[in-house]
Every structure is written in C-alpha cells, then in structure tokens.
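Entry:
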Amino acid sequence: MRPLRLPAATWTLVDQGVLSLGTFLFNIVLARHLPMSIYGGYAMFIGIISLMQVFCGALIFYPLSVRGAIVGELERRRLIATGLLLTAVLGTPIAVLLAAVTARFVHAGLFWPAFLALAAGQLQEALRRGLLSNFRHRDAVLGDMASYLGQVVLVLVVARYFGLDLGTALIMMALTSLLGAAIQFLQVRPAGVSPLPLVATFRDFWSLGIWSLSSNLFQILRGQSLPWVLTFVAGAAAAGLFQAAANIANVINPVQTGVANVIPQAAARAHAQGERSALSASWPFIATGLPIIGAFVAIMIVMPGELLALAYRARLDDAAILTPIRLMAASCFFSYAAAAGCAHLHGVNGGRAGLVADVASTLAVLACIYPATVYFGITGACAIAMLGMIVRSAFIVIAIAARIRPEIEGATPAIGEPVTGKP
C-alpha cells in the first residue's frame, strides 16, 4: 500500500477550510447586521444556491474534475475552456430561473443581485475545479480566499460605512466571486486554446454526471424529509432542536467535503492499473480524515452539553437534546465513510452503485421516519438519520468490495463491469 500523501491531503483540507470558514463568517456578519426577517430571506437563498450547485456540480464540475485528472496539460486546458462554455450554456438559464424564484419568494428587488451572485459563483467554481483536477489545491487557496474571505471583509466595510441590505450582500458575493475567478483564470490559463466539441463533451459529462445528479437529488430528499416530518409530527420547536443537533455534527463538513473533492481525481488517475490500484490511490486521502472525524465524534459523545454551551451560549434541555447529539455523532462516522466511498466510486465509473446506495438509504429513511418521530420525537429522527447513513455506507462498501474481488481472486470480470481501463 502506498504511503500517506499528507501534503496533498492537507492542502485540500486547507482549501475546504477556507470555503467553510468564509461561508460561516459571512453568515454571522449578515445575522448581526440584517433584521432577522431579512436574514431569513438569505437563509432561503442558501437553499436556492444548493439547487444551483446540484445541477452544475453534477453535470459539469464533477466530470471536469475526473476527466481532467487523466489527461495532459494542454488537453486539460481545452477541457477547462469547454467546461466554462458549458457552465455558461447550462448555468445561465438555471441562474435566471432561480433568480426569478428568489424575486418571487424572497424579495421582488433581488432578481439581478441573485442572478449575479449565482452566475459569478458558478464561473469561479468551474475554474476552481480546473485547478483541483490537477491536484492544485494549494494554488486554489489564493482565489478561494479572495472569494470566500473577501466577501466577509467587503460586507463588513459596507455594513459599517454605507449600511447593508440583502441585495447589497448578494452583489458583494458576486464581486468577490469574480475576483476569485480572475485569479484562478490566470492560474489555469484556459484562454488561447480551442475548446473540445461542445455537444460530444456534454454527452460525455452527462454519462458520468447523471449518476451524481441522481444521487444528490435523493440526498436532498432524504435530508429534507427529516425536519419536515418532524415539524408535522412534533411541531417547529422539535425541528429546531433537530437542527441544533445537526449544526454541531456539521462541523465535520470541511473534512468530509475536502477529502471527497480530491478522491475522484486520484482514483481516476490510477484506475488504468485496475481497481486495487485505484483504491490504493484513494485510501491515503480517506485515512487522512479518519483521525479528525474520530476525535470529533468522541468529543460529541463525551461532551455534548459543553458543545451546545459553546455553540449557543446556553444549555438547551439536556433530556431533549443530549441523546440526539450522540446519535448524530455516530452518524458522522458513517456519513464520512459513505461520502469517501461514494467519491471513490465516482472516480472509477461506479456512479450507478453510488446511486443504488442513495436510493436504498432514502427508502429506508422514508419508510421509518414517520413512526420513529411519532413514538420517539427528535431522538427517533436522529436515529433514522443514522440508519440512513448506515445503509448508504454498507451498500457502498459492498459495491467497492465487489469491484476488487475479481482482481483478488484472479477471476475474469463480469460483462459490463471492467476492472481496468480509463473511466
């Protein structure tokens, strides 16, 4: 087995940490400077951003990351240039639609600020993924700092000297995204090269990304069903407690997302030597995040009350929240295993297996969530959330084991399931 590649894994965690820290601080600044009713509109906009990210991320950015990892420098630049064109072709109508949704359901005057924030964010993400496809996480940090930390600085200045509203905040997001995009444009140098055939490239991206898109939609259904059913059964206060527990568990997201962002490229690059080589390439990155996740899970289990006091400045009802926190802690381990394993499958053309895992886990949650919340309230909801992660991670581990078994046993792979060759 290859030695741990800590420098590469460390830089992807640093880069993801910049994104998470910038987003967190931006949320805090807005919460402190906007009336809560207006800040609620921003919370709705965050959900709209997630929809934008689901479609462009699955159909453009993820395939760009995987395909870009297995080609030479010139071909990678052509691929990035094509990805930018596809982002404009696919992302512009989606941004128009979601900006219209923002104007309809959040505030009538937010169409153009929302459109600019959505479009600029996707432009920067396309260039960022071009860097990540070549494992240039260290280079990506500069542009991401300009974008995600820059928006915090800019909104603080505007709030202090000019006054802040939601439209202005969205324009600040757009401006700093464009600044980050300009920096990363100079780093990837997509100008001056001819793009690949647009239709053929999109067909290739679609064949790879449709599984990720489908999985992401099932994940949204699975995740959103929990607070909605809990609200229906036990009321909004119970859903609030559920979210309070989830917020504590979400601290692992930078580690989980950072590791998952680099695994597909590593697996895709090694896949030509077989499934075992691909898994050996993924494992160092998976292993890098395990001690961090394990340490935080242990803290959540042993000190849930202290974490609540630190996060919310007051202890919530221990009887109602401590057991759910511990269940969320256990879910973190399975969530990390599932995310890392699914990222590996996407790097070796195993997206179909990842989708099966998401369908199975979503069905398990939907089948159990109502009776669990009726009889056990928030504790039942957290237990079902953990069940979903257990089912998802079990299916993914079984799928990975099935792919490498023919190589271990020296058997001929089944038709339609090659164990060698580029994805």
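Residues 1-7, 412-423 have pLDDT under 50 and may be disordered.
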